[in-house]
Amino acid sequence: MKIKIVIPFFAVFLLVLMGCTQDEVIKEDTSVGGKEKISVTVTQGGTITRISHEEDGANGLILRWTANDAFKLYGTTTEVFTTTGPTDGDGKIATFTGNAVEDAQHAFFPASKAEKRWEDCCFNVIGQVIDANAPFAHLSGYNFMTAQTTASGTEISEISFKHKIAVLKFEVTLPNGIVPKYITLSTQDDAGIAISQKASDESNVTTAKQLTAAISGASSKKFTAYMAILPSTLKEKLALAVTGDDGMVYSYTVSFNGDFPYEAGKVYNSELTFGGIEGGYGTAAIFDNNVIGNTWDQSDNKGSTKDNPYLIESAGHLKYLIEQVEAGERYVDKFFKLTTDIKVTADTWTPIGISFAKPFSGSFDGGGHTISGELKGSFSDDLQNFGFFGCLISASSMLIENIHIAANVTWSFAYPEGTIISSFGVGGVIGNGPTTKITVHNCTMSGEMKISDGNLAYGYLCIGGIIGYSGAHMNNCSSIGKSDVSCKGSMVNIGGIIGDNGILQSEHKHCINTSSIILSNPERSNTNYAILVGGIGGTMAGNALGCCNQGSITGRSLSPVDVGGIAGESAWGKYHLNRNLTTDFNITSKGTVRLGYLIGRPHGTTTVYSCNESVGEQSQWIGGNPAWTPTIDDENAH
Question: How far apart are CA 599 and CA 509, in angstroms?
Answer without folding.
Answer: 17
